[in-house]
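User: Hello! I'm new to structural biology and keep hearing that structure can be predicted from sequence alone. Could you demonstrate with Aldehyde ferredoxin oxidoreductase family protein? Please show me the input and the output so I can see what each looks like.

Assistant: Of course. The first part below is the input, the amino acid sequence of Aldehyde ferredoxin oxidoreductase family protein. The second part is the output, the predicted structure written as tokens.
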Amino acid sequence: MNYGYMGKWLKVNLSSKEMSDFDFPEDLLRKFIGGKGLAVYYLWNYAKELEKKGVNIKEMDALSPDNILFFSTGPVTGTRSPNSGRHHVMALKSPLTGSIGSGNTGGTWGAKLKFAGYDGIVFEGKSDTPVYLSIIDGKPELHDASEIWGKNTMDTTKWLQEKHERKRAGVSCIGPAGENLVPCAVIMNEIHRAAGRTGLGAIMGSKNLKAIIVDGNAKPQIAKQEEFETKVKEHVEKLKENGVTGEGLPTYGTAVLVNIINQNGLFPTKNWQTGVDKEAENISGETLTEKYLISKHPCWGCVVACGRKTKVELGPYKISFTEGPEYEAIWALGGSTNVNNMGAVIRANHYCDIFGMDPISIGSTIAAAMELNEKGLIPEEDLQGLKVEFGNPDAIVELTWMAAFRQGLGYWIGEGSRKMCEHYGAPEISMSVKGLEMPAYDPRGAKGIGLNYATANRGGCHVTGYTIAAEVLGDVDRFTIEGKAELTKTFQDFTSIVNSCVNCLFLTFALGLDEYVEMIGPITGWDITADELLKTGERITNLERMILNKLGITGKDDTLPKRLLEEKMPEGASEGQIVELEPMKQEYYKLRGWEDGVPTPEKIKELELEI
């Protein structure tokens, strides 16, 4: 028996409608843990199978039936360890970036999948008609989804819970954006939680898969229950005592960062033309709490409760109930577009949730469109009378719903900033890495996060290696490049562990590698060390990079937009700074054992990745 796991994974071939159970042997569980790790392992082997069949995965259409979706929990998920309701979703290829598809989400769905009796699900092929999958009390079934095809994520969730008479069941689904194959589409669960990046929702839509509803009463078994309960109490106390997890996030949500990051001069504003938003207070966590907050809304098993239930009581963006927006959405839809109207940001974020889109990519692409228009590069007929200008709240609301339905300029907004900026002849205006729009920290004011953006496997991503925790919220000099290669590598490998366990990255403000050993050991019964665990994280990071190499991505793609490398920050607390990427990158490659972004044979052997 493998403690911490349900011992059962479901493979669903949507083309043939065949379903079968499978499991991973204990040695592979220990080498890759679960969540992201096992997904990466599965994708690597699936890629090799495709190549044997003559499929060129580098040229493969991400929306073809050959792509797969892998939903995965980990040994920590659903165990009552703090913040353990999360799950990870991966695809071999992203329709937005052409790189690997990867998303991590909270809520309750991950825990409910395990309670339904399964550790994960892999979807292959494509259904000829819309379907949804139910797993209730260990029984998987495919159903006709024609009645809910076209519904938004809120209506889909309620319909499925009522249909199956399971008001608390976990529902993961796509909205109209996923059905319309929008590359910025996401997979939503519990209506307002998202596997939110790299276009995973479009892949689900391409397979005619509308939703997955899960529920049950099964529970993962713990190897050392008494020791586990003791450690859980200790970890909860550490979370409560930490300034970020015990005070900042519970009080103001993730938007607590708006003023902090802005004051440090790295809050990307007007499509990264500056790092200072002079009216950021209007879209801050403090303002959200004072004027728009209904209540907190924690994920399953969460002791932090950063989620927000909100409303807009008056004005043109009035809405009686929604959730969020989180820090990244506030920045992308607000700071990046220079829109300091919280009501408009909340409304646009709500559209992202119910239509199923990534607010980081959508907001960033709208900001890029504003700069393109500022430079006179978008023809009047494409604008259709809409004022696509920095600071215009109506523009972010209108373009968000237009993106979901591929209407007018919204078509290009949904395609992401790289494709849109290439279309209008100014690719340098896209603030993305490997085709994925970067999040809310300008690396000219924190050099480590710049190295992470450049080298992160899925593209411009902060949660691959959140060095901001040390550079802005900790005591590491944010302007130096010294030591940033080692810092980035450590954060990336540790994050691979968190995303494989699977639980919340916010725990790492208070809990480090030793605490994760204390978590995993009692759950699984493994006599595991911190060194072994970090090596496992390195193994996962490297195998994911090996998949990227198969997709044609190498060191040439580990870079940043020209603006960040050459244009000095014009003002604020980070004034005069650029990102000196190349020396950090070369040191990083040396520490990684990579040559031009490719793991060497020696590194592959060291990590036992000759698989």
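User: So the tokens describe the shape?

Assistant: Right, they're a compact way of writing down the 3D structure. Reading them back into a model, for example: The first strand starts at residue 9 and ends at 13.
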